[in-house]
Every structure is written in structure tokens, then in C-alpha cells.
């Protein structure tokens, strides 16, 4: 009898503890899976937000773009070409290997060498000529030119271990899990590409313990399916809440919305540098002898055809804003706001005629399906607007990984994507600077765009330590880009997450990061 009572008491205690145990698990549904778990393979949001749970950087940008110490405790400029970094002591990788000063030069040397990368982290290390190890806790970065963005750059690369990861680690060894070993607050349990990621709390983490014992991330590219999973209680949090579901979830007391104005802007990238282009044709479908997108007047006509205000208010129902330039609304050193870029169909048609296309031409626009909210619907809206201006446009929406691989191979005439940054100079150097892998310029310049009117002030800005002078130069480059229509900005996104009110509180990220490190239990 006593034994039975003890068993019943134990069962009762276990039941009583069940809610607390459940509270220590988190299940998130996210739209876009990572393309790999190699922390240096692809510098893109959907990879970074998963990797930041497992690996760490020297610094981490907070939601106000202030670098916060992570594996580094501090950084100071000794002179314009020397930076001293003090490393955090007592940090260990998940297998117990200590973080060592030698891991920093090892990591930085690997970054430019990752094969088949759609976009490397090279800009972050482009100015470093050598790394001096002063002592086990101190390193000095020596640069071949001044770098005013060093604090920002050191918040980009994830740090690996020379002892664990060894010479020439393969991307496949990270994605398989064999080398997915970092210093981060969570350890990898399993990864099924395009399906799910499972992680567990790192009990030996150097920093404050994370509240979640286990986290499951499900990759659900279909917007309606993510909402359905949340409503059914299958997940605790979803990202990229579908526009049509926002108000219903806002009114439902079971759920909470977490929103923030992002630093993300959607843009179109035309193929303006080649004499011919693969997805343009005349009205009869015959190849054109010359690439119409190489003509600035045609690019301006496409920009004038875009009704950004209608896209923001109707398609996105206020969860986006019309773009006025190639920089986020809160980006440092952006051009003074000048209102949305103009929409004028009559002027667009006149420019097409002036450029030699009075009857227009045919165009295919490529873009992602499942990369950001309503991306496929946005492609269709843009195609309709171009068609009204006289450019008969069709759409091909592709999975993000496929899109970026093909875009890197220059397979498109016009494609749509986005970029996120707190700085105006960053998309200039990463997206539209003349591509120069050795100098770390233009890793996202998939159309090989090149414009000396941008490159010259940009190159000077990138070595100018005086912020006022750097702003003048950045403005000069940004204006040249707007004038040339090298890219066509479309909208600024507002980031929205939805979660079960009884399960999770989320700190919304302007950088679009959906990550367990931004989530905590309520109360």
C-alpha cells in the first residue's frame, strides 16, 4: 500500500512538472530553410538566423545596430590601420575544445576560399593584411588601408576552431552535422534539409543560459500552412505572417504579434551590362539584336511603371512602404528622404519609344517563391505593371536556393530579391560595386553591374575615417546609383511574427532573424 501511494505521489509530481517541462521547449515555423550549415558558405538572412544559434561572432549587432561583445570583449583602434581585440576567456566549443587566439586568423583565412558560394563573407575581412597574436587573449588586426566599418565587419563572420575544423573543411561536413560545432548557446541535434532543424541548449555555454532546453525549427515555405500550424497548436511561433492573416491574429486573444520596421528593402536587378540578354525578346518572341536593359532609358521606364504606393497599401496592406532609394529608412548615411520614386506610365511609354521600342518588348522576371512575404504575388504585380507600360512580362518564381545559384551564374535578365543592412554604404559595396572578389567588393553583384560614378566615391568612402566626409562620399555614390537605375528599389518591408501568447514572447529583429535567441517564455 505504501509502495502504491509512493508511486501515485511520484506520478502526480511528474504530471505537475509536465507544464514546466513543456515550457522549456520551443517549436518555430519559418519560411525559408538555410542552404547549408557551413557558417561561411552563404551570407544571407535565412542562413544567418539558424547559424547564430550554433556559432558565434566576435560581436553581434543589436536591434539598434550597436555592436555587442560576444567572443570578443572589446576592440579599439590603435591607429587607422591597427585594431586590437581582447578575446573572451573561458569559452569552449561544444565538444569542449577551448577558443584560442589562433582560431581568429584560421577563420578569416577560410572565408574567401569556400567553393561554390553564392555570396561570401569576404567584405568583412577584405582590408586585413595580417593578424598578430599578442598573447592568448589579445590579437591585433593590421589592415592595408583604413577601415571605418571594422566594428560592423567584425559582427559578420562566425568563428570556427582550427583544432576541430582542420584544413579545408567541406561545406557538406557542416550540413551533415559532423562539423557543425560552435561556441553558441545551442548545440545541433539534427538537420533535415528543407524539413527541420533540432537543437538543444548548450549547458556549458559561457554566457547566460538560454530558457529553452530543446528547440525545433520547421521549414514551411507555404504561408497558409505556417498559419494553420500556429492555429492548430503545432508550433509556438511563425515568421513572415501572411498579410491576409495579420488582423485576424491580432484580434485573437490566444496569439500575440511581434512587429518592427525592418532594414530590409526589396529591389529588382536588371542585366544592364551585356550586349544581349537571355530573357528578352521582341513582341513576336524573336531574340533581340541588342539588350534593351543596357539602355538607361529602358531601366527608367521600368522604374516609372512600378506603382510602389499601390503595392505597399493594397498588396501588403500597410506592412510595407514605398522605396525611395537603395537603403533602409533608418540606415546610416542614407540620402535625405525625397518621397517615393515616381510612377508615370505615360512617361514610361515615351522613354521606351525614345529608346527604340515603341511597341515594347517581351521580358521574363525571375524571383523567389518562399523568401519573404507575398514574394510571388509581388512578382505578378510587377509583371502586370510592366505590361501596362508596354513591356509584356511573364514571371518565373523559383525556390530561393535555385534562384540565387542561377542568378550568380548570370542566367536572368531581371530578377527580384532583397537586402538587409543598417548602413547605406553596405549594399553599395556588396551589391552594386564592381565585382572584385580579391578586394571583397560586389559579392552580391550577380548581374556584374559596373559604374565608375559609384565605384570612385565608394572606394574613397570605404577608407575615410571621418564620418562627415564619409557621408558626403556615400551620398555621391547613392545618387549615382539612383540616377543610373542600376537597381530598381521597390518596397521596404515591415517584419511580423505571430506566437502563442501562453508560450512565447519574441524580440522582433529589424534584420528579419527568426531565432531561438530572440525568444523567451512569457512572464
UniProtKB/TrEMBL annotation:
Localization, UniProt: Periplasm
Domain Solute-binding protein family positions: 67-421
Pfam families per record: SBP_bac_5 (PF00496)
Any one Gene Ontology BP term: peptide transport
UniProt keyword list: Signal
Gene Ontology CC, one term: outer membrane-bounded periplasmic space
Family: Belongs to the bacterial solute-binding protein 5 family.
Keyword Thylakoid: no
Signal sequence region: 1-22
UniProt-recorded name of the protein: Peptide/nickel transport system substrate-binding protein
Top-level taxon in the UniProt lineage: Bacteria
Entry GO MF terms: peptide transmembrane transporter activity
Amino acid at each position: 500500500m505504501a509502495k502504491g501511494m509512493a508511486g501515485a505521489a511520484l506520478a502526480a509530481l511528474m504530471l505537475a512538472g509536465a507544464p514546466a517541462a513543456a515550457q522549456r521547449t520551443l517549436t518555430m515555423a519559418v519560411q525559408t530553410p538555410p542552404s547549408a550549415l557551413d557558417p561561411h558558405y552563404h551570407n544571407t538572412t535565412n542562413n544567418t538566423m539558424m547559424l547564430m544559434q550554433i556559432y558565434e561572432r566576435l560581436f553581434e549587432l543589436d536591434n539598434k545596430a550597436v555592436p555587442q561583445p560576444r567572443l570578443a570583449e572589446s576592440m579599439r583602434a590603435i591607429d587607422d590601420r591597427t585594431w586590437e581585440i581582447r578575446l573572451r576567456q573561458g569559452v569552449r566549443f561544444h565538444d569542449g575544445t577551448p577558443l584560442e587566439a589562433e582560431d581568429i586568423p584560421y577563420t578569416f583565412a577560410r572565408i574567401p576560399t569556400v567553393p561554390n558560394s553564392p555570396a561570401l563573407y569576404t567584405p568583412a575581412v577584405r582590408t586585413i593584411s595580417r593578424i598578430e597574436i599578442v598573447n592568448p587573449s589579445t590579437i591585433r588586426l593590421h589592415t592595408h588601408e583604413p577601415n571605418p566599418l571594422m566594428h560592423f565587419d567584425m559582427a559578420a563572420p562566425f568563428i570556427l576552431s582550427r583544432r576541430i575544423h582542420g584544413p579545408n573543411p567541406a561545406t557538406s561536413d557542416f550540413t551533415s552535422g559532423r562539423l557543425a560545432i560552435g561556441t553558441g548557446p545551442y548545440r545541433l541535434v539534427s538537420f533535415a534539409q528543407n524539413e527541420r532543424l533540432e537543437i538543444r541548449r548548450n549547458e556549458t555555454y559561457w554566457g547566460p543560459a538560454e530558457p529553452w532546453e530543446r528547440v525545433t525549427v520547421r521549414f514551411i515555405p507555404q504561408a497558409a500552412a505556417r498559419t494553420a500550424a500556429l492555429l492548430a497548436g503545432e508550433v509556438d511561433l511563425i515568421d513572415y505572417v501572411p498579410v491576409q492573416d495579420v488582423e485576424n491574429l491580432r484580434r485573437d486573444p490566444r496569439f500575440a504579434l511581434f512587429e518592427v520596421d525592418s532594414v530590409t528593402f526589396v529591389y529588382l536587378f536588371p542585366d544592364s551590362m551585356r550586349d544581349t540578354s537571355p530573357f528578352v525578346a521582341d513582341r513576336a518572341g524573336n531574340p533581340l539584336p541588342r539588350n534593351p536593359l543596357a539602355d538607361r532609358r529602358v531601366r527608367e521606364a521600368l522604374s516609372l511603371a512600378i506603382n510602389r504606393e499601390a503595392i505597399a497599401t493594397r498588396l501588403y496592406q500597410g506592412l510595407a512602404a514605398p522605396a525611395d532609394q537603395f537603403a533602409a529608412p533608418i540606415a546610416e548615411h542614407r540620402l535625405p528622404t525625397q518621397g517615393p520614386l515616381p510612377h508615370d506610365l505615360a512617361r514610361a511609354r515615351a522613354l521606351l519609344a525614345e529608346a527604340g521600342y515603341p511597341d515594347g518588348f517581351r521580358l521574363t522576371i525571375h524571383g523567389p517563391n518562399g523568401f519573404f512575404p507575398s514574394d510571388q504575388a509581388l512578382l505578378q504585380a510587377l509583371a502586370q505593371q510592366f505590361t501596362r507600360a508596354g513591356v509584356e512580362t511573364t514571371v518565373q518564381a523559383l525556390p530561393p536556393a535555385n534562384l540565387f545559384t542561377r542568378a550568380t551564374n548570370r542566367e536572368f535578365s531581371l530578377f527580384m530579391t532583397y537586402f538587409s543592412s543598417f548602413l547605406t554604404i553596405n549594399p553599395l559595396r556588396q551589391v552594386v560595386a564592381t565585382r572584385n572578389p580579391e578586394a571583397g567588393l560586389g559579392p552580391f553583384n550577380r548581374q556584374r553591374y559596373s559604374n565608375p560614378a559609384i565605384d570612385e566615391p565608394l572606394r574613397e568612402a570605404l577608407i575615410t575615417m571621418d564620418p562627415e566626409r564619409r557621408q558626403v562620399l556615400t551620398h555621391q555614390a547613392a545618387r549615382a546609383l539612383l540616377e543610373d537605375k542600376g537597381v530598381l528599389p521597390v518596397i521596404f518591408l515591415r517584419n511580423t511574427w505571430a506566437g502563442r501568447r501562453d508560450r512565447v514572447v519574441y524580440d522582433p529583429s529589424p534584420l528579419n532573424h527568426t531565432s531561438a535567441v530572440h525568444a523567451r517564455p512569457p512572464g
